């Protein structure tokens, strides 16, 4: 998948219309030596205030809404449990049971096998859903 993304970056043309028009305007500027040609997309000027508003102030404003606050608290709780669980593997097997460093980390192989198994199930489910999607006339199939 990573290889596909890298190939896309270098081989797929830009399809966002304002950016395509900006490329065309730049090409026409260079070919015709008319430096007044420009696209509307190129007129956008970014100020420091806009950047601060978008990337610093707006996230905190969103965090003040109840749904974002509750989802953030829930996600932090879930990630905290996950991190604590993963960190406790080494403590359990190395310090409490007295296993060595290498042998104490072997239980992570079970986690790796589970990740590969889940990936295979996901690929199978995606193939099944795509087939159901085609059978249904290219319309989304609920609970397929």
UniProtKB/TrEMBL annotation:
- Localization per Swiss-Prot or TrEMBL: Membrane
**What is one term from the GO cellular component aspect held by the record?**
plasma membrane
- Which domain of life, per UniProt? Eukaryota
Q: Does the keyword Transmembrane apply?
A: yes
Regions crossing the membrane: 63-82, 102-124
Keywords of the record? Membrane, Transmembrane, Transmembrane helix
Q: What broad class describes the main subcellular location of this protein?
A: membrane
Q: What is this protein called?
A: Uncharacterized protein
What is the organism field in this record?
Aspergillus hiratsukae
């Amino acid at each position: 998948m990573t290889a596909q993304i890298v190939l896309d970056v270098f081989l797929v043309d830009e399809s966002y219309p304002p950016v395509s028009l900006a490329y065309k305007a730049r090409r026409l500027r260079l070919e015709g030596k008319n430096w007044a040609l420009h696209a509307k997309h190129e007129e956008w000027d970014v100020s420091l205030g806009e950047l601060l508003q978008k990337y610093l102030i707006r996230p905190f404003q969103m965090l003040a809404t109840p749904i974002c606050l509750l989802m953030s608290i829930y996600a932090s709780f879930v990630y905290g449990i996950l991190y604590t669980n993963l960190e406790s593997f080494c403590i359990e097997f190395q310090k409490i049971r007295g296993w060595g460093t290498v042998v104490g980390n072997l239980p992570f192989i079970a986690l790796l096998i589970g990740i590969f198994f889940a990936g295979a199930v996901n690929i199978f489910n995606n193939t099944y859903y795509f087939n159901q999607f085609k059978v249904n006339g290219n319309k989304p199939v609920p609970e397929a």
